[in-house]
Amino acid sequence: MSQSDENAQREYLKQAMQDDLHRSIDERVNRYLEIVYQWVIPAHHFAQASAECIYVYRDGYFLTVLMASQSVTEGLWRFVLERNTIQYNADREAQANDLVQRAILSRQCADSFGRIFHSFRNDVHHMNPSVTAVPFRELARRNLMDLATIEREIFAVTIGSPGRLVPVQRQYWDIGTDGTTSVFLRNT
Length: 188
Known about the structure:
Elements: H1 3-34, E1 40-42, H2 47-58, H3 62-83, H4 92-101, H5 107-117, H6 121-125, H7 136-154, E2 157-160, E3 164-167, E4 183-185
Antiparallel strand pairs: 1-4, 2-3
């Protein structure tokens, strides 16, 4: 491809993308505002993927949201178990009930984990033929609402003096000997 052809293609693509953004900006803003997410979480290995769930939902990629939210949730489940030195049990429902009984999770948080675990995970991840019947947009929204519930509980913070973040559940934050921790801030 000649340089002039490449430049013409670049300008065409740039204009097409700008037109798409202009056409869909109100829908994107509305979707972004639907999710009331935890604004700060620890900078753990799943933080970037969790943030990307919000962005791909905003941009309308609902299948991707399902896959990513399910993966992040599975990682958070293992994280909660590890931080509480609890062995993984394949019967997640029984284990969730146990975590509620032990006051490690609230019922609302455990139910949020359960809904995401049951959001057509195998159909979506294995692209089973039945995936055509999955209500992607509705499940994507619900999964993100549930993921936000989970993260708000696990990574809740208060603001102390002088404007210092104070984790409510310190076991989920890697706090250094100097009292600091690495965080992942989410904003637009």
